[in-house]
Design a protein that fits this description.
- This protein is mostly helical and about 80 residues long.
- The chain has one domain.
- It has 2 helices and no strands.
């Protein structure tokens, strides 16, 4: 039962990888700079926020695209 994967099925994996990169970069940036907490002009705030968005989207798409039957076709 070899089934082809679509690019949409790889999207949650890419978003998860992006979240794993952006969240630590943003958090470490918060700790190492003297900027205020959640300063909107800080690059680290943007990186951390995008990391949270990527993580949430990855979870949502992972659940939405999950097929418990293991087939791409509806029965």
């Amino acid at each position: 039962m070899n089934r082809e994967t679509t690019s949409l099925e790889h999207l949650p994996l890419g978003l998860r990888l992006l979240a794993f990169v952006l969240l630590p970069v943003g958090f470490i940036g918060f700790l190492t700079t003297e900027d205020g907490f959640f300063d909107p002009s800080s690059v680290f705030t943007v990186a951390f926020s995008l990391g949270i968005v990527c993580a949430a989207a990855s979870i949502y798409l992972g659940i939405f695209l999950h097929d418990p039957n293991g087939s791409a076709e509806d029965a």
